[in-house]
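Q: what does this look like with aspartic acid bound?
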Amino acid sequence: MENVFAERYTDCLKVVKFGGSSLADAEQFKKVKSIITAEPGARRYVVPSAPGKRFKEDEKVTDMLYQCYNLSSEGEPIDSVFDKIIERYDAIVNDLGLDLDLSDEYLHIKWSIKHHAGRDYAASRGEYLNGKILAEYIGYDFVDPTMFIKFGDDGMFDAEMTNTLLSTKLAKHEHAVIPGFYGSMPNGTIKTFSRGGSDITGSIVARAVSADIYENWTDVDGFLMADPRIVDNPKPIDTITYKELRELSYMGAGVLHEDSIFPVRVAGIPINIRNTNNTASRGTMIVPRTDMYDTRSIITGVAGKKGFSVLSIEKAMMNSETGFGRKVLEAIEKEGISFEHLPSSIDSMCVILNTHEIEECRERIVNRICATTHPDYIAIEDGLALIAVVGRAMVKAKGTAYRVFKACAESDINIKMIDQGSSELNIIIGVNEADYNRALSAIYNEFVK
Ligand code: ASP
């Protein structure tokens, strides 16, 4: 298939983010440089992660920095772990033949970790140092995000302030490397996003410079239509909308940090997942709408998760009792828990909850519901797996739900719950955890093969 993306987007403005495995050693840095220099007019803003794993048993620099922080907060020496970090960076600098001396940086970072600069500060130095090296290697300016990516006093990311500060700053730099993963609190202390958060930085930078595209370079060819540990050789997803991706990521389809969608979504910027180790693959395009792209199959992907519980409540004439649902949900809300789904019928209602979230409070929830609604029957059953069948083309296709049920029935799988949102973007079914793998494969095979 022709590369529509390449035709449409050459020589536009791209923000490129490289994940930890793409920058794990000097060889990977060389690949990154050739990717950037292949389109120097377009790939002008680069967001690096910290060095990741070079091989399966290897350690990520970020993990080693967390170790340093933990040791230091227990009053233990950090030297042996910190030396391993220095070794990783020095090997990259030397193997690239760079004339860059980071020894003052190492001293300062080590001193700061020992003198309580904080957990987030420690973790952020992985990206900071990698950014320094990458900027030197490709000849781009280094822009430290500390002053430009801001969090509020409540620790929440301040999207609007960041966008104003960062776009003003980056307008002054034709080319820049901006380390991923961190910014700062109003008082200037370093604050990181959650793990994998360099994806979010890339998205923030893309919005700030009004990029035409946010390229997220990683070590896989993009999203797959199903989990390859369950389905043999699932097909790659060519194009997916933000909304579909959100449904699939929520159900556990990894690759991209969930929160990285929001900044580019606001600005309508597409994300292209690409593979640093296989530049020939066009990867997955994540787009606001898909009318510019053809839709090849009815479903875009299928994903799921185990570990759910069903709270079932029955009461005669429930449907005519005002406020019944509110009382049930209030009992759950009082425990600070949010519910996942709410399938119901005339005289019964089910609430799907995350099993681990109700471990401590299941009895309290049941008691509270009994006290406020006096049900005929109430029970919590564990061991439910949810499967989301996601596809923008489902709106127009007839018989999609039928095919999902047929696939399960033919594999002798009992569907315990069904939920189809009015957007018709997905159908969610609940099955016994023991049937999860078979159900996922059956549904995939029904639509894809
Ligand atoms: N280095 C951080 C982590 O390992 C952030 C990232 O790579 O995106 O989580």
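The first strand starts at residue 14 and ends at 18. The pocket of aspartic acid is lined by residues 20, 49-50, 60, 62, 126, 180-181, 195-199 (CB under 6 Å).
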